[in-house]
Design a protein that fits this description.
- The complex is a heterodimer.
- The longest helix of chain A is centred in the N-terminal third of the chain and has 31 residues.
- A two-stranded antiparallel ribbon of chain A has the order 1-2.
- Chain A is mostly helical.
- Chain A has one domain.
- Chain A has twelve helices and two strands, in the order αααααββααααααα.
- Chain A is about 75% helix and about 5% strand.
- Chain B is of the alpha/beta class.
- Chain B has two domains: about 210 residues, Rossmann fold; about 160 residues, Rossmann fold (3-Layer(aba) Sandwich), CATH 3.40.50.2300.
- Chain B is about 40% helix and about 20% strand.
- Chain B has 13 helices and 13 strands.
- Chain B has a seven-stranded mixed sheet with strand order 8-7-9-10-11-12-13, with helices on both faces. Chain B has a six-stranded mixed sheet with strand order 2-3-1-4-5-6, with helices on both faces.
- In chain B, α2 crosses α11, α9 crosses α10 and α12 crosses α13.
- The chains are: A mainly alpha, B alpha/beta.
Chain lengths: ~300, ~400
């Protein structure tokens, strides 16, 4: 097996993992601290992509559009928290699911009304469309390196935020014991709104980063949300470290599975059966892992220190 | 309350006019999800056909009822059932996706109604599952990639990497190109498909590049087309691994690719049974009016849908609007006496069209818009590979 191919596939897996982390981090914060099951998180991912696409055409510059869209997504998250999440905090998880599922349908239809049924292809400047030769045979598209950079940057920022700031301390405390934090006189409503807005901004950023590669389309959030839930279940709900490691793990396993599983299968079975079974099995891999984690360590691999 | 309701119901039954019958056509396509762009194009073509016909086939009024399959076989079957049982349509047409068609065919055929596919062409329905009530105005899935395989041989391409989505039509496309391509297939990837299809092909493109194949053959309809072409462009493969595709580069994806300036697609080669530049009167009228009304070139999905409506109208006119004689109507459909946008049109023994396949190249037209034009004819009057498996004759 080619070493440079392995390196390239690992970079691809890293990129997918970091995008998953951006989505999952917001989700795990909201689920861990607010105890709110937010299915509409995927819709925020989609909105980020659409806002960025429209602004790229309006401002003529993709990077500028990203910078402008992030606070817009935070504002959208804030509004969503006030309107949708707040009335539902006192209710049980099933009501959260129903409410946020309804929100997905509403947001999808709103996007359909505003932007139409077609997706938007996001144009990139020429310097982002090329390739970067790293070393030897390893050549990576520039934009994917940008995604990896942005993902690592966001992860670093979150790490600093959660571990070295007062807000981060409140977040970690809220993840451990929400009632106690409120009893200690912290304005829990403001904290919740901030966390929700942060989650929305992160999900929106992920959408903005994937749109130039695929496209901004309706319903794009619906499948990433499922993978994000798998990530937070495997990583441990409420844990940023868990989300990071699980996201990278799942990104790598999914990518390496798609790349090499058919070759591995060909060693054990005929070419024809390998070619039919490999794509099916590689699609199932992450759910098999989730099932295994739920069976042997249901609290996740890195759960936050609790209560 | 119940009595008043039932009396009102009886009254409406009595007042149904018995004069000019309306022939209802049920049209199933994808109107929601990311693939709705295709459904919209087909809907536009159907509406244009109705405009051109004035809503009439001879003296009979025509009515189209649209159904949304939501890109899922379960929903497609449900909406087909609704059209057949609740709306009591006379003919069912449409169907973009092979897996939706395969799931829905029984609902139409068991009711004894005519089913016309305006796109999907799974091998089963051309072969073992053929039926006297099923017709196609499109093609059989394998034919277009078979034409591409021939083209690859003619161009001297010795090795190929194949990528397609993992569903009925994807497998047909792969089978089709492998049937005629004489070189070496260096690798094959079937990617996840459905409403949440895989749209990030980084791993597969890396494998393709590493395989050292001389060309890459893909089939990615709908939203995946833009995603694939973009990533192909970003991977810088245009010079090392030219792109040969079927049903990927079309009038739907080209405007978006042009807006985002993905020049890698210019000059790429596509095979198809129809092209906007085909030189016949029906096609000129169709393309010009479509551009005038909807602002862009029609796709092949639109052309096939337009042909389906025109075919149905010609048959309705031939039987004088009398739908009670199914045999006569079926014979009129089989006769296919209408002006197709692809020129001459005839059905084969298995009710799939026997038609030409052309090699087309992506170019910029006189106004600078990206479209395709015919470069050569690959197959003339081609019969699909499954006709022999069909027990009708």
């Amino acid at each position: 097996m080619d070493l440079s191919l392995l390196v390239i596939q690992m970079l691809n897996g890293l990129q997918l993992g970091l995008l998953l982390f951006l989505v999952a981090s917001g989700l795990t914060l909201v689920f861990g601290i607010l105890d709110f099951v937010n299915l509409a998180h995927g819709a925020l991912y989609m909105l980020g992509a659409f806002f960025c696409a429209t602004l790229t055409f309006a401002l003529g510059n993709f990077l500028l559009a990203v910078v402008v869209s992030i606070p817009i997504m935070a504002a959208v998250g804030w509004v969503l928290e006030r309107v949708l999440a707040q009335p539902l905090y006192a209710r049980n998880h099933l009501d959260h699911v129903l409410g946020t599922f309804g929100a997905i349908l509403v947001i999808d239809t709103l996007v359909h009304l505003i932007w139409g049924p077609e997706g938007i292809q996001v144009p990139l400047p020429d310097y982002l469309e090329g390739q970067v030769p790293l070393w030897g045979d390893v050549v990576v598209p520039t934009f994917r390196l940008l995604i990896i950079g942005a993902g690592l940057g966001a992860a670093g920022l979150l790490f600093w935020l959660v571990n070295y700031t007062r807000l981060g301390m409140l977040i970690r405390a809220g993840a451990s014991n929400r009632t106690m934090v409120s009893a200690l006189g912290i304005n829990i409503e403001m904290l919740f709104a901030l966390v929700f807005a942060l989650g929305a901004a992160l999900a929106g950023l992920a959408g903005m980063l994937i749109a130039p590669i695929t496209e901004a389309s309706i319903g794009m959030g619906n499948n990433i949300i499922i993978t994000a839930f798998v990530v937070i279940i495997v990583g441990g709900i409420g844990s940023m470290k868990g989300a990071f490691i699980a996201a990278l793990m799942i990104g790598l396993i999914d990518t390496l599975g798609r790349s090499f599983l058919d070759d591995i299968f060909k060693l054990a079975m005929s070419t024809e059966s390998a070619e039919t079974s490999a794509p099916a099995v590689s699609a199932m891999l992450i759910y098999i892992i989730m099932a295994a984690v739920l069976a042997f360590r249901p609290q996740g691999l890195f759960p936050p220190k609790v209560r | 309350m119940k009595r008043i309701l039932s009396m009102a119901l009886a009254a409406t039954m009595l007042t149904t006019p018995a004069m000019a019958e309306t022939v209802k056509i049920g049209f199933v396509t994808t109107l929601t999800t990311g693939a709705a762009v295709i459904g919209k194009d087909m809907e536009n073509a159907v509406n244009l056909a109705m405009d051109h016909l004035g809503g009439m086939a001879g003296d009979t009024k025509l009515e189209v009822v649209f159904g949304d399959d939501q890109f899922a076989p379960e929903a497609g079957k449900q909406v087909t059932d609704k059209l057949v049982k609740q709306d009591d349509v006379d003919v069912v047409a449409g169907y973009i996706w092979s897996h939706v068609l395969l799931a829905s065919r029984k609902s139409v055929l068991d009711a004894g109604k005519i089913l016309i596919s305006a796109n999907a062409g799974p091998s089963q329905i051309a072969g073992k599952l053929c039926s006297e009530n099923f017709f196609s105005t499109s093609w059989q899935n394998d034919q277009t990639p078979m034409a591409m395989g021939e083209v690859l041989n003619q161009q001297g391409v010795k090795s190929l990497y194949i990528m397609a989505p993992n569903y009925a039509a994807g497998k047909n496309m792969v089978a089709g190109v492998e049937r005629t391509f004489q070189g070496e297939v260096k690798g094959k990837d079937l990617t996840k498909w459905g409403a949440d299809a895989q749209l990030d092909f980084s791993a597969e493109l890396a494998k393709a590049k590493a395989s050292g194949a001389e060309g890459i053959f893909v089939f990615y309809p709908g939203a995946a087309a833009g995603a694939f072409i973009k990533q192909y462009h970003q991977a810088g493969l245009k010079d090392t691994m030219p792109l040969y595709s079927v049903f990927t580069v079309d009038a739907l994806s080209l405007p978006r690719l042009q807006a985002a300036d993905f020049e890698s697609v210019l000059g790429s080669r596509v095979t198809q049974q129809w092209d906007p530049s085909l030189d016949n009167a029906a096609n000129k009228k169709f393309v010009d009016d479509f551009k005038a009304k909807y602002g862009g070139y029609p796709s092949f999905y639109a052309a096939q849908s337009y042909d389906a409506i025109m075919l149905i109208a010609s048959a309705v006119e031939a039987v004088g609007g009398d739908m009670s004689n199914q045999d006569a109507f079926r014979a009129a459909i089989k006769a296919a006496d209408f002006d197709s946008v692809r020129g001459d049109f005839a059905f084969g023994t298995n009710n799939m069209p026997v038609q030409n396949f052309y090699l087309r190249e992506v170019v910029a037209d006189a106004d600078g818009n990206w479209t395709t034009k015919v470069v050569a004819t690959v197959y003339e009057n081609h019969v699909d590979s499954y006709a022999a498996e069909c027990s009708m004759n």
